[in-house]
Amino acid sequence: MSLTISIDAMGGDFGPSVTVPAALACLKENSALALILVGDEAVLEPLLVQAFPVYGNRLQIQHASQQVDMDEPPSKALKNKKDSSMRVAINLVHQGRADACVSAGNTGALMATARFVLKMLNGIDRPAIISTLPSVYGHTHMMDLGANVDCTAEHLFQFAVMGNELVKAIDNIDSPRIGLLNIGEEAMKGNEQVKTAAKLLENSSLNYIGYVEGNSINAGNTQVDLIVCDGFVGNVSLKSIEGAAKMIGTTLKQAFSKNWLTKLAAVVAYPVLKSFKQRIDPRLYNGASFLGLRGLVIKSHGGADVLAFKTAIKLAEVEVQHNVIQKITQQVEASLAQRTLL
Amino acid sequence: MSLTISIDAMGGDFGPSVTVPAALACLKENSALALILVGDEAVLEPLLVQAFPVYGNRLQIQHASQQVDMDEPPSKALKNKKDSSMRVAINLVHQGRADACVSAGNTGALMATARFVLKMLNGIDRPAIISTLPSVYGHTHMMDLGANVDCTAEHLFQFAVMGNELVKAIDNIDSPRIGLLNIGEEAMKGNEQVKTAAKLLENSSLNYIGYVEGNSINAGNTQVDLIVCDGFVGNVSLKSIEGAAKMIGTTLKQAFSKNWLTKLAAVVAYPVLKSFKQRIDPRLYNGASFLGLRGLVIKSHGGADVLAFKTAIKLAEVEVQHNVIQKITQQVEASLAQRTLL
Questions:
Q1: Which pLDDT score, from 0 to 100, does residue B270 have?
Q2: Given an 8 Å threshold on Cβ–Cβ distance, is B272 in contact with A262?
Q3: A238, A254, B259, B298 — which has fewest CB within 10 A?
Q4: For B102-122, what is the mean pLDDT?
């Protein structure tokens, strides 16, 4: 089975200084993997010269003369950057030369380009972003995380259909528990979109468990595998969690660096604090998948370091190996056919 | 100056076992404070018999024969519970016998009853819920936290006008920095309500600093005093933060209780962990104010313990002492008059 991933090697806050070492580490760990690094040949070639003999045709460069800036408006990137590392990396997926693409570049430009090049699946109105977050029960998948500011009930339902296939495939569970994010668990709560989406989900074959609240993402009483919400709420919620984790981390660090006594305690507690940090390390959850497109695109956090970018590449590997896009495509076509019959 | 607060003594998950000790502790700490505990006399009297001689007329019971259940629909509570501890406590504010009311009861019923009894301020369409959250810079105020699932730009603007007065008064700052919660800091981002609200705020005399993202609540790069959002987003965000904090706390505890070595480290680190916990203890941030009404109502978390409920009473004391409701009323009337002139 082919497992070739194209990497936007110039994307992200740190470009090749992060993408190249992460790519090489992934090649080392998975001998079935082939990578195409897309970007300025003059920059990439010297960084890879020692790796070529090691990995042979599993490691290739695809030249691209431009790159998309992190703050460039998506429409401008789409119009003026037809030879950007981002665009060329996505083209490789479209051409069937790569099974997935990973980029740490500008989210808006990546989404717009992916949508333009790969096109939407029939039956899906909007692409959506899904990612995994740690929870006390293991982890939770959540979508949409920011692709769509306003969503109808139908959009939320489509997200659930797509997310369900992804979670089934990569978590290897038969019937993921799906919750709708709301401000209370009672039926009367929520806005009209959410209430109508609840009805669509109740009448579907999905394992819909009802409304869940914000705390269910990381540590609620309700165990849920997939949380569905609109992109505005999802993005604010995700970033609120990031901010809370950062504040708690900072406060913990400050408490341990107050005076020599607390510093001594830090030395004793170091192995524990290290194992604690590893369990909730956001770098180990890096990588969001764009669903609804005719091809797989994974977005890495722009500020990703080598470990985080590696995680995003590994997510692409897992999704390719589990045929996530094929499964979503089949299901969307089946559900759509089923629904038009009603 | 009078400082009399009515307490819904029967409200919350724990009722008088929490509200009574918290009330007595507040009376002990502030000799200017008077409290009226509202609830079943037969239950409250025995609990207060020893305190009456100590606090004299600073401590009173107001009998109420009913209580609102935690999961009772607001409309039912409004119709059938006219002699509930919650309703009578709010009546006392309406009658001018109390300057504020504190309840840990059912949020929906409390809001509906407060709105029915106290009425809205002229110029305000919707009441909103504001609370304080810890941040690396100190703290941030945020509203609406769940009273309104759908908000227009005008509603968001009204929230900002009210919140601004509250923050000025209780934080003693001249010109609070106000941010609109959005999914990016660029002008093009966001939904229509948020974009239009941004224009209203830019054209106002408020110190509007622009869009802020979810991480700005606790630990963003942008320092902000007041974050404005609709109640759906605000509630999800608040609960997401609660969930993240709970997960991190649980993970930290697990890491320290793994084996005898980590338990030994916990003993050494105990004073540090304790001081860390105190700095972000959610009980010290308990209490949300309902703004937009002709009277002050503070909502405590339903699951509040004595320390948390004390915090909510103290918040009421501070807001009464700073004439928050009077200041908001004046400002709303002034802004409204100014705006109709445009």
A1: 86
A2: yes
A3: B259
A4: 95
Question: Is residue B77 within 8 Å of residue B68, measured between CB atoms?
Answer: yes
Q: Residue A269 belongs to what domain range? A: 125-283
Nearest CA distance, B214 vs chain A (angstrom): 4
Write the residue in A136, A240, A251 that is nearest to B241 by C-beta. Answer: A240
Residues A279 and A319 reside in one and the same domain = no
Q: Percentage of residues in chain B with pLDDT exceeding 90?
A: 75
Residues on chain A touching B251 (C-beta within 8 angstroms): 136, 276, 279-280
HSE value, Cβ hemisphere, 13 Å, CA-based, for A275: 14
Chain B residues with CB under 8 Å of A230 CB are none
Q: What is the pLDDT of residue A337?
A: 59
Q: Which of B76, B71, B3, B80 is nearest to B35 (CA)?
A: B3
In the numeric block, which tokens belong to residue B308?
């948390």
* Model confidence pTM above 0.95: no
Whether A342 is covered by a domain: the verdict is no
Query: What are the pLDDT digits (tens) for B203-246?
Result: 999 999 999 999 998 887 779 999 999 999 999 999 999 999 99
Which of B219, B237, B269 is closest, CB to CB, to A214? B237
Residue A258 and residue B248: Cβ atoms within 8 Å?
Answer: no
A133 and A189, same domain (yes or no) = yes
Q: pLDDT at position B340, please?
A: 55
Take residue A249 and report the two structure tokens written for it. 């981390």
Q: Which of B112, B69, B65, B117 lies closest to B91 in space, CA to CA?
A: B117
Residue pLDDT, tens place only, A234-248: 999 999 999 999 998
Q: Provide CB contacts within 8 A for A239, sequence distance 6+.
A: B183, B213, B214, B215
Say which residue the tokens 């269910």 belong to.
A216
Question: CATH code at A84?
Answer: 3.40.718.10
Asked whether residue A162 carries a pLDDT value surpassing 70, the answer given is yes
Task: Say yes or no: A110 and A35 in one domain.
Answer: yes
B105 & B228 share domain: no
3-state SS, A94-118, equals HCCCCCEEEECCCHHHHHHHHHHHH
Cis status, amide bond into A144, omega within 30 of 0? yes
CA distances (Å), A198 to each of A190, B191, B236, in order? 10, 23, 17
Mean pLDDT of B160-166: 96
Tell me the percentage of chain A whose pLDDT exceeds 90: 75
What secondary structure, in 3-state letters, does B234-265 show? Answer: HHHHHHHHHHHHHHHHHHHHHHHCCCHHHHHH
List Cβ neighbours of A331 (8 Å cut-off, separation of 6 or more).
Answer: A161, A162, A164, A165
Q: Is residue B341's pLDDT more than 50? A: no
Q: How far apart are CA A189 and CA A103, in angstroms?
A: 38
Which value does ipTM take for this structure?
0.90
* Bond into B144 cis (ω within 30): yes
Count of structural domains within chain A: 2
- Give the number of other Cβ atoms within 10 Å of residue A49's Cβ: 9
User: DSSP 3-state assignment of A287?
Assistant: coil
